[in-house]
Amino acid sequence: MSASKKRTVNDLDDSHAEPNKRGPSSKRKGNEEVGMGDFEDEWEDEVDSDEGPNEGEEAGQGNQEDAMDIDIHPAVEDAQAPSSKQAAPQTFLPGLHKLSKDEILEPDQSAYEMLHRMNVAWPCLSFDVLRDGLGEERRKYPATAYVVTGTQADTSSKNEVLVMKMSALYKTQKDDGSGSDDDDSDDDDGALDEDAVLEYKSIPHVGGVNRVRAQPTPLNYTPNPSLPYHVATWADTGKVHIYNVRPFMEALDPSPQSGSSIPEAAKKPVHTITSHGRSEGFALDWAASFSADNTSVSGVRLLSGDITSKIYLTTSTVSGFTTSPNPFTSHTSSIEDLQWSPSEPTVFASCSADQSIRIWDVRVKGRKSAMVVENAHDADINVISWNRTTGGSGYLMVSGGDEGGLKVWDLRGWNKPSQKPSPVAAFTWHKAPITSVEWHPTEESAFVASGADDQITIWDLAVEEDPDEVGGTNGTSDPSLRHVPAQLLFVHQGQKDIKEIHWHSQIPGAVVSTAFDGFNIFKTISI
Questions:
Q1: CA nearest 511: which of 450, 460, 451?
Q2: Long-range contacts of 222-229 (CB under 8 A, 24+ apart)
Q3: Bridge partners of 231?
Q4: Averaged pLDDT score across all residues of the chain
Q5: What pLDDT is attached to residue 394?
Q6: Which of 127, 134, 70 is closest to 103 using CA atoms?
Q7: What average pLDDT score do residues 211-239 get?
C-alpha cells in the first residue's frame, strides 16, 4: 500500500535574467554574436515514502515578486545611507558579468507570469510531463501539472520513480500587489501569495535513473483508468524498464470508486529490456499509433540507445512488448539522444558523441542509417529535438553540443550528396555543454534550451535584427547589449547544474526544469 505525501514549497525569489520582449527592437542581454546561415524566414508573418521529495526550504518572503530583471545590491553591512539619487539597477549578463562576494541577484517579478521552485530529496537527471485530463490551453490560475521523474540517490537501493502532482501554482504577485495585465487578471485567486503543493507516489527502482520518457497520447486524449499509460526509464544498471503509471496518477486524484490505494503489482515493470547487457545509456524516445478518431493509442514503439553505440527497437504486441534482437549500428560512439520523426512513422534521428547526426528508416535492411551529417558539432552532440508543430512540417531540427553551441537544421537539404548540410541558424550564447533542448509545441519558430552554465534560454527564429540597431545598443544605454542575439527572448537562472527542460503542452508557455537543486516551473511574459 502506497500513501501519498503532500507538502508546500516556496516560490523562487533569487536569480534570473531580464526578459527580451518579442520583436526586433526589444531589450535583450548577452555577450556572443549569433552565427546565421542562409535561413529563410518561414514565419515572417507572424505517498509516504522513505526517500521521497522533502519540503522545500524558505527562499524568501512569499510576497516577493517572481520574475527577474536582475538587480545587484551591496551586502547589508556595506549599505550606505539612502541618497536622493539611487543608481539604476544593472542587467546581469551571464558570461560577461560576475558577482562579487557582496552582490546578489534579485528577480524582476514583472518578467514572469508564474514561477515556483520545488525541492526533492535526491537529484533527478530526467523527467517528462504527463498529459492529464484537465483540459487544453489552460490559462487560468492556480495551475496544476503532473510529471514523472527518477532519482539519482547515493545508493542504488534508494532510487525511485516518482509520479508527482504540482498544484496551487499561482500567478506571480507584482510590486503593486496585482497579477498580470492579461484578460484573466480579474481572477483575484489567480495571484494569491500562496506556496505551491507537491504530492507524489513512488515506485521502487533498482539503480539510478538516467532518463525518463512517457508515451505520446492522442490529440483528443481523455484519461481512461482501464488503459495503460506507459513510462520508460533508462537505468544505470543497463536495463530499460517500462511501467504503467496510470494507477499512480489515479491515486493522486482518488475517486470514490478507485480510492488512493495502489496494487503491489503496479509497482513492478510491465516489461524490462535487457538487450543492452550491462551497458547503460541515456537515449530514449517513444512513438505511438492512434485510432482513426484520434482518441486512443493503438500501438507504441520505443527506441533505446546505449554508450556502446547500439540502438534497439521495442514494440508493443497483443501479449506485451517485444525487442528486436538486431540493433541499429552506424554510430561509432555513445548514443546521446533519439527522436522519432513527427511525420513519418518509420523514421527516426539520433545524435552521438561521435559528433554526427543520423537519420534512420527501420525498413532499411542491415540496420544502417539512411542519411548522416558528420562533424555536425565540434564536440559531442548531447541532444536533438525534431520540430513537431504543423507549420514546422517535420523538417526542422535543433541540436545542442558539448561546446555549448545550438544549431538549427533544415532536413530538406540533407539529401544532396554533393553538398554538406550546414545549419540555417547557429548560436553560441551558452558557455558550457547544452544539456537539453525542445521545440515549442505550438510556436513553430520557438525552442527552449538548457546548459551546464546554469542557464535556460528561450529562442525565437522569427525575430530579426532591426537594421537601425545593428552595431548599436538595442535602444538602451547599455553598450554590452549589442552582443545579444536578436532571437534570444529570455534567460532564466537560479538553478544549479540544470539537466533537462520541457514545455508543458497543456499550459501554453509553461516550462518545467530539473537540476541538482530541484525543480522549477515557470511561465515568462516573453512567449
A1: 450
A2: 222/133, 222/295, 223/132, 223/133, 223/249, 224/296, 225/250, 225/258, 227/296, 227/297, 228/270, 229/130
A3: 214, 243
A4: 82
A5: 79
A6: 70
A7: 93
Name beta bridge partners: 500: 514
**Half-sphere CA count of 389, side-chain side, radius 13 A:** 17
CB burial string 455-473: b at 16+ within 10 A, e below: bbbbbbbbbebeeebeeee
Do the beta carbons of residue 409 and residue 421 sit within 8 Å? yes
Of 315, 301, 241, 308, the C-alpha closest to 280 is: 308
Average pLDDT value for residue range 366-386? 96
Q: What is the pTM of this model?
A: 0.81
CB-side neighbour CA atoms (13 Å) of 326: 7
How far is residue 302 from each of residues 241, 394, 520, measured CA to CA in Å?
11, 19, 28
Three-state DSSP string of 468-489? CCCCCCCCCCCHHHHHCCCCEE
Q: Which three cell numbers stand for residue 72?
A: 545587484
Output the furthest CA–CA distance in the chain (Å, rounded).
Answer: 77
**pLDDT of the residue at 254:** 84
Residue 24 has what DSSP assignment?
Answer: T
pLDDT digits (tens, 9 = 90+) for 460-506: 999 987 766 554 445 555 666 778 899 999 999 989 999 999 999 99
Q: Encode pLDDT of 131-184 as tens digits.
A: 999 999 999 999 999 999 999 999 999 999 999 999 999 998 765 555 444 444
Q: Cell 534482437 belongs to which residue?
A: 325
pLDDT at 280 over 50: yes
> Can you tell me the distance from the alpha carbon of 485 to that of 465, in angstroms, rounded to the nearest whole number?
8
